[in-house]
Design a protein that fits this description.
The chain is an alpha/beta fold. It contains 13 helices and seven strands. The radius of gyration is 19 Å and the shape is globular. The two termini are 25 Å apart. Bound molecules: zinc ion.
Length: 252
């Protein structure tokens, strides 16, 4: 909660405290407008603390990613002091989420989700595929470091997906792209042609790939599966649209 409060201007904090004291459960829905107020007032947010991380839930973590993306799309990112945040987090980190996303230079995940130093763990690999090292990193983020949410975010017009659907072979990239092949079979056969010239097909494969990676996380990690089933962490998926800057999170 302190993390959220750090994002708000003083008047907004006072309003928030009153609302919370009244037991209101709708605060997440007002996050965007409150942070807009904070931005307009020039308030500066700071890196999350241990208490702030502990106060987060899987639901509030997802809400913060959504409102952060809304801030990015609106062109109103929160004001940050990166040198101060670097210093403040040097002795410890308390990120509230871990995001697995693509290597693509057009999807810098902290920027598009408007998150600062210490806010989220970020695992990036072409095609946001899963392997043992990435899975271990997710386990570290959640089981060891207390992150409350795993978010897998693919994107439109993904070069890795294009390479996979075209069966590109190139050094070690070949093995990476084969991890995406199962997603191709999730897209019905009526989607033609089934190559990178069909951008709609490419994006449908990218979405299927995100859903398969989410499924793999549950199936391959007993540690994470147990945490999800106990409600201690959440697992979310979404697609980032390059042209709009918007992340569409899946309903389920
Ligand atoms: Zn990509």
């Amino acid at each position: 909660m302190k993390n959220i409060l750090n994002r708000l201007s003083l008047p907004t904090v006072l309003v928030s405290v009153v609302v919370l004291a009244a037991g209101c459960q709708c605060c997440r829905n007002t996050g965007a407008s409150m942070t807009a107020t904070a931005t307009a007032a020039g308030a500066e947010v700071s890196a999350p603390t241990k208490a702030a991380q502990a106060a987060m839930t899987p639901q509030s973590a997802l809400a913060e990613l959504k409102t952060g993306n809304a801030r990015f799309v609106a062109g109103h990112p929160l004001k940050r002091n990166f040198p101060a945040d670097a210093k403040a987090t040097a002795s410890g980190q308390y990120p509230f989420a871990v995001v697995l996303s693509c290597l693509d230079s057009r999807q810098p995940i902290e920027i598009v989700l408007d998150q600062g130093i210490g806010d989220i763990f970020s695992a990036r690999v072409a095609g946001n595929v899963l392997n043992d090292d990435i899975l271990g990193s997710l386990e570290f983020a959640c089981k060891v470091s207390g992150a409350k949410l795993i978010a897998v975010i693919g994107h439109s017009n993904c070069g890795a997906i294009k390479g996979a659907v075209d069966s590109v072979e190139l050094g070690s990239l070949t093995g990476l792209l084969t991890k995406i092949h199962p997603a191709m079979y999730q897209v019905p056969a009526d989607a033609q042609p089934r190559n990178s010239k069909n951008l709609e097909f490419v994006d449908r494969v990218a979405e299927a790939n995100v859903r398969l990676v989410m499924q793999e996380v549950r199936e391959r990690s007993p540690i994470l599966r147990e945490m999800i089933e106990q409600g201690r962490i959440g697992l979310a998926g979404g697609m980032y649209e390059l042209s709009s800057g918007k992340v569409e999170f899946f309903d389920k």
